[in-house]
Every structure is written in C-alpha cells, then in structure tokens.
Amino acid sequence: MTQVDNPILLGGCGSSGTSLLSHLLNGHPNLYCGAELHLLNKKALYEPPFTESKSQLARLLQKRAKALATGVKLRIPARAAYLQIKRLRYDGILTTGLLNNKYLGSSTYANLRYGRAIFADCAGYGLTLEDCLNLVQTSDSFKELIDRFFAAVLLRAGKQRWAEKTPNNCYCIGEFLSLYPAGQYIHIVRDGRDVVPSLIKRGASPEVAVRRWLHDTLMGYPYRHHSRCYMLKYEDLVSAPLQTLNQLTRFLGESESAKQMLASQTKNSPTNGHSSWSVKTSDPVSTQALEKWKKPNYFSKGYLEALFAYTHLSSKFLDSLGIDGIRSANDLLRALNYEATDCWNNNPRLSPKLMKHFFQEKVYSLLASEKLACDITVFL
Predict the structure, then answer these.
(1) For the chain, what is the mean pLDDT?
(2) How many CB atoms sit inside 10 A of residue 331's CB?
(3) Is residue 311 one of the residues assigned to a domain?
(4) Nearest CA among 137, 110, 131, 111 for reference residue 119
(5) Are 52 and 137 in a shared domain?
(6) Looking at the structure, do residues 232 and 349 belong to the same domain, yes or no?
(7) 368 and 234, same structural domain?
(8) Do 327 and 239 lie in a common domain?
(9) What is the reported pLDDT for 34?
(10) Could you tell me how far CA 9 lies from the centroid of its own chain?
C-alpha cells in the first residue's frame, strides 16, 4: 500500500473558490484532488478510540446503501434539527447545511448522525459505497481508513500525493495537522461581499450567509502564520493565476507547473460546480466574478453594508479560537486587507445607533422573506 505522509487539506467558506482551487491542483502532474468526501471535517472521527466512531460510521453507510437501493430518502428528524440549530445559535454560528440536506449523514458540528453524507461522492473516486463500508469495517484507526482509501485512488490515477477539498475542512485544521505531522493545509479566502450573494443563490438567507462566511473564514485565520498552512486569496488566484499557483506549489514542495494546471483545469474538472454559479469551475480562470456586489441593483444601497457592520459572532466562540480584535464581519474584512465600508458613511440618515436598532429589531422579517430589493431606509 502506498502511504502518503504529506497529504494536503483544502478548506474555506463555500463559494470562496475552493472548487476552482481543487480542480487546479488536480491538474498538477503529481497531485490528485477529487470530489468532496465530507470525511476529514468530522471532529468525532479524529477522537480516539476509533471503535465507537467506526461502528456509527458503518451503520450509517449500511443505512445509506439500503436507502439508495430502495429509493427512500432518509430525512433528518425535526427535533434533532431544531436542537442542533439552537446549539449553533448559542455559539454564534448559523449554517444552512443541516436543514437543507435531506440525507442521513454526518454533522460537522456534533456527532455522526445528521448532516451531509460521508463518502457522498465516492463514485467519483472509482469506489462504491460497499467498498467504503468494507474499508471502514476492516480499518483499526481513522488514519488507516484514510490511507487505504487514497492508496487505491492514487494507484488508479497514477499520482503520488493526494489532496482533499471539502469547504468545512476548516473546522478540523488542528486535528488534521496532528494526524499528519508532515501534512499541509490551504485556506482560501474571498471578499465576503462577493461570497454572500453566491450563498444566497444557493438557498441561504442573507443573515445566515454572512454568519457562515464570518465563521468559516475565521476558522482558518489563527493558522495564517503556521509553517504548514497557506492562506490564499481568491482575488489573487484569478487576477494573477500563474504567479499565485507557482507560489503555492513552491510552498507545497512541488514542481512549478502553473501552466499545466491551468491547461488541465478546463479539461479534467471532476465537477462543474454548483448549478447557481454563473462562472463554472471548468471555465478558464478569469476576473469575471470579482466585486460583483458593487454592480448597480445587486443590492439595495446600504443593505449589504448593514449586514456586515452588525453581524457578529459570540465572544465565547472567538475566545475559543484565540482571536482578539475581530467581532464583526467588517472587522474581518479589514483584517484580510479588504476595504470595508461602514453603512452610515454612505447614507447620512443611517447613524450607528439607528442602524443597530434597525438590524436587531426590524430586519428579521425582511431576512425571513428574503426581499432583497427593499431599501432598508423605508423601515426607519
């Protein structure tokens, strides 16, 4: 069995360019990066002993195999979903994955019972659900399971090193780096004001979209100076792809093959991205998706600025990451060297006090109905 000691993990907020980056890496002659596994973003799987997680994971795969065979969808129990969302609200976190997913799988936040399905795209790796179940049942540790899975994949692909992209991998950076002492992590970030509209198109409410960007981007922020972590900006990737990819491959200790990666990306993309995306991952790299939020009529004047100025995460969560000086989405924009605009600077009617009152007391019904075309000043 070919064992890789220095695998690569990719993470970041969804719609930040993680899919594009994974397809580019897959074009490198030495690297394989396939579809999302939703495996390496589960804290419970990293925690010893593996015995309990192994049995839960095996039962989960057996239920999914039976459901696929019978055509029955396994839905998340409503009570469990409610309790999970309540817990996320307490921690200052809101995401859409739990409620939107209809299949029994594994939750990033809690245990192995709810959320997205592990090995959901195993067919893209040339393996069946039964193959994955056999690997789970015959592995004595989580690391052995991962190594055996990718050994078969690399042998088939004829490559030497694997990378895995699931956006929520950013939730388990420390665990992954401990499991693989020579492993490396890439955290891709993007201007949240471009991310939020994309997440809204995919079904998130504006409030949830901003909180998800803030939370997921912050998960990688404490590792920005780590020797085995690399923070990459989407804007740099699409504006100067050759230079950015060569810098990245040097960090990874691989040959500088940016031209080959760009050429392969349009031909060999494992997937073409979400159906709501206007720019597909198989399209040539371009700046078409930059600063779309600035376009006329994309949002009502002041609306997006209000969301970023008054969307915060809890102090408890920020303290757990050791982050100081960042509370709001605007704070994070500035920390990442994006130009943040305070909403009241654009509209003299919107003082900080009024905006805070508006956002806390008035905006809920607007967010719930997602009437994005409304001008927020009419509520004051």
Answers:
(1) 76
(2) 18
(3) yes
(4) 131
(5) yes
(6) no
(7) no
(8) no
(9) 92
(10) 12
What's the chain's length in residues?
Answer: 380
Give the count of beta carbons closer than 10 Å to the beta carbon of residue 56.
17
* Per-residue model confidence as pLDDT tens digits over 58-115: 888 887 777 777 766 555 444 444 444 444 443 333 333 333 333 223 333 333 433 3
pTM: 0.80
Q: What does the pLDDT look like over 337-363, one tens digit per residue? A: 998 876 544 454 444 544 554 444 444
Of residues 117 and 233, the one with the higher pLDDT is 233
Is 148 among the domain residues?
Answer: yes
Cα separation of the two ends of the chain: 66
Is residue 24 assigned to a domain? yes
Q: Are the C-beta atoms of residues 312 and 318 closer than 8 Å to each other?
A: no
HSE-up of 52 (CA within 13 Å, CB side)? 8
Q: How far is CA 148 from CA 132, 134, 189, 303, in A?
A: 10, 11, 31, 49
Report, as an integer, the average pLDDT of 122-149: 93
- Give helix then strand counts, H and E, for the chain: 19, 5
Residue 14 corresponds to which tokens in the numbers above?
A: 């969804």
User: Helices 18-26 and 258-265: crossing angle, nearest 10°?
Assistant: 110
Clarify whether residues 246 and 300 are in a common domain. Answer: no
Q: DSSP characters for 310-377?
A: H-B--HHHHHHHT--S--BHHHHHHHTT-----HHHH-TT--HHHHHHIIIIIHHHHHHHT-TTS-GG
The answer to whether residues 298 and 179 belong to one domain is no
Q: Are residues 80 and 154 in the same domain?
A: yes
Residue closest to 102 by CA, chosen among 120, 124, 89: 120
Cα–Cα distances in angstroms (integers) from residue 330 to residues 124, 181, 214, 309, in the given order: 38, 35, 9, 5
Q: Give residue 354's domain range.
A: 292-379
User: What's the total number of domains in the chain?
Assistant: 2
Residue 265 maps to a domain:
no
